[in-house]
Amino acid sequence: MSGPVASGAAGRPDAFGARLAEAMAARGPLCVGVDPHPSLLSAWDLPADVTGLERFALTATEALAEHVAVLKPQSAFFESHGARGIAVLERVLDTARQAGALVLLDVKRGDIGSTMAAYAAAYLADGAPLAADAITVSPYLGFGSLEPALSQARRTGRGVFVLARTSNPEGHAVQSATAAGDGTVAQSVVDAAAERNAGAEPLGDVGVVVGATVKPGEVRLDGLNGPVLAPGFGAQGATARDLRRVFGPELGAVLPASSRDVLRHGPSPLALRTAVRRTRDELAAVVETARSL
Question: What top-level branch of life does the organism fall under (predicted)?
Fold first, then answer.
């Protein structure tokens, strides 16, 4: 079962933002996806069935969970194998947790009312079989529709990452549209997340997703006071230097996400760990440079 670490005089769980900041300081800011895409299964000479899924996902998790701050399983690749695939995902969550990694479950859920509450119970409630440290959510039924997930996460010491300005080209038309009032839709999402994070130290629990491939200055993050998940790093083309260019002084709160660029080095656990160390060291050098400017 996933669950935050108990702490504090009041016996409440550690807030996700604080646990994430601690993990990033200890292990670096890299987030590695566990994405059992059929093309990667093939590259690892594994069958595109649940046995291949299990070998791929557990090999990657066992090799990497001790060496990264965050693992990000992509739920869809497990769901596509039905109940047996979900059982593998439960094992991935448990294995990663035992190795000390935080788990960000990439589910991108977004709905209203009781349905959103059910999603929150599935992924953010204590004792839920698929409970993770944080999940990705979509705000495009209105940021307020996320309230059940935000409230559940706050109660149980977990976090959410809200899609704001994503790295996929198809998102540009919606996310860069002018919102009611002033600014873009993406900026309105960031601003709403910032309101939830006000006063939190060292980081709030409501993160946003902003692609590493966006234009510098396209989204203002200086008031967010929360983490930024940055897809697009690695196989999608963004480099460590691009991260500094896009995120500037906010780079210290950025969690670059890489999946294929690391996973393509499997199935050798040693090769996977070597790829992570190389990427982690590159990111650390860029973050240190940004801090010194």
Answer: Bacteria
> What span, in angstroms and rounded, lies between the C-alpha atoms of 186 and 13?
31
Q: What does residue 168 show for φ and ψ, rounded to 5 degrees?
A: -80, 135
- pTM for this predicted structure: 0.93
Residue 108 designated active-site: yes
Taking only the tens place, the pLDDT of each residue in 185-242 is 999 999 999 999 999 999 999 999 999 999 999 999 999 999 999 998 876 778 888 8
Catalytic residue among 37, 55, 108, 264: 108
Which helix or strand (DSSP H or E) is residue 34 part of? strand 31-34
Contact 17, 202 (CB under 8 A): yes
Q: Which two tokens stand for residue 88?
A: 């593998």
Domain definitions of the chain by residue range: 16-292
**Residues 16-292, CATH architecture:** Alpha-Beta Barrel (3.20)
Cα 210 to Cα 150, 233, 242, 293, distances in angstroms: 19, 11, 13, 23
